[in-house]
Amino acid sequence: MTNSIGEITGADALLIIGSNTTETHPVIGYRVRRAVRQGTKLIVADPRRINLATHSAHIHLQQKPGTDVALLNGIINVIIEENLVDQSFIEKRTEGYDKLKETVAKYTPEYVAEITGVAAENIRKAARLYGQAENAAILYTMGITQHSFGTNNVLSIANLAMVTGNLGKPSTGVNPLRGQNNVQGACDMGALPNVFTGYQKVATEEARNKFVEGWGIKVDINPGLTVTEMFDGADNGDIKGMYIMGENPVVSDANSSHVVEALENLEFLVVQDIFLTETARYADVVLPAASFAEKIGTYTNTERRVQLSHAAVESPGEARPDWEIITRLAAKMGFEWNYANAEDIFKEIAYLTPSYGGMTYERLKEKGLQWPCPDEKHPGTTYLHSDEFKRGLGLFSAVEYQPPAEETDNDYPLILTTGRNLFHYHTGTMTRRSEGLLEYRPEELVQINPDDAAQLKIEDGDQVEVISRRGKVKAKASLTEVVMPGVVFMTFHYHEALTNLLTNSALDPVAKTPELKTCAVKVIKA
Length: 526
Description:
Elements: E1 13-17, H1 21-24, H2 26-37, E2 41-45, H3 51-55, E3 59-61, H4 68-81, H5 87-93, E4 94-95, H6 97-104, H7 109-116, H8 120-131, E5 136-140, H9 142-145, H10 150-163, E6 173-176, H11 183-188, H12 205-215, H13 227-235, E7 241-245, H14 249-252, H15 256-265, E8 268-273, E9 285-288, E10 297-300, E11 305-309, H16 322-332, H17 342-352, H18 361-364, E12 369-370, E13 394-395, E14 414-419, H19 435-440, E15 445-448, H20 450-456, E16 463-467, E17 472-479, E18 487-491, E19 519-525
Parallel strand pairs: 1-2, 1-5, 2-3, 4-13, 5-6, 7-8, 8-9, 14-18, 15-17
Antiparallel strand pairs: 10-11, 11-12, 14-19, 15-18, 16-17, 16-19
Helix pairs in contact: 4-7, 4-8, 4-10, 7-8, 13-15
């Protein structure tokens, strides 16, 4: 997030796009609802009539899945046409505006309505609510990123924020809400194929030299592979072994049958986790890890806040903290790592990572610190880009709408979009062990519009088969107007109804993220 969670209540307008915030980020969802009660204008753009759209939003833009770039270009078109731009911000802090203006000129509300299904007048209303606000913030999640053009979706969001000057000041910004408790921290620590910690690029000689000196080893100058590329490599035999920690790709990744085939083709698989997940069942060796409540360490949350966590209970059996398992394994492989505890590792992180440079366990005790925090006198950074962008001037990116990699046809006439529900989390590894949560949502439900169900002779509660070009799953139908005609919705919490057997692994060419949020399916009564 460029800004902070606490700033949400200070925004004059909020645009939430591709995020079912109250169900997937309920704490932040509470902040959003409180902001609305205090006078914030809320725009929700979502293919479903989610809770926020029904009960809190001043306007709901119910776009066809996969049409976000067109919708955002349409909003920018109105903002430019009605002179709601921040001309001073554009001139002083950005470049490329003329090209953007030229590109969005054809995205009139009427043209965008044809692509998205959103009424032209609603596009104008949303543009005015956002464009006229003194401070406007954008919140988004994987409904924006998990597309074959997800990078363009994010660039379009940045365009909208910059054209109205809603960056570099409180209660504004471009704010991705992270989907798990330490996704931000994992990225910060270099769990991406092209960067070291703190997003220091592998391709940069200065960064490489720093880590060669800091770690005392040679560093490969070539970026690694993304997760999806790893499974492709395993499937074709280029990758022989894999080590999976705290992830359950058999359930969570697109085109799950391809993931299983790749795992079965490995010569050796190690899985490190707190439970025997669906993925761990394919492992040659399972290493039992300690849960968050059984170890000390830091987590970096969605607002860049590094927080110190202490153990509340002892680990069961042979379970050990992740750092200890990895350190002991490294020792067996001949590496002399002299970490005595998690704090030793954090000291190394701070030494090698400028944005964490001023952090210590002592400073993190109370409420944590937000990076960048370059030295021990620095208070942390509430919001980013106050004076300038990291690259200097903010660059507008003139992006065009492109359709999803897979569109509907006569054989597969419905669009499947996926997400989560309030009662379960990710692949259900933890939440589906809770009797209380299981009582609320014991099984998968396929949300289908009553008009579509009538044509298919499906009634509420019927068992149905959802079929794509990659597989089929069986689950119970839930007839609801939450989804528009032509769209069905499923979660990926239930291994018995493995939704990601259906989804498309087509990749965004830049981020290499698969297109989990839209694919073509048909639904038949089982």
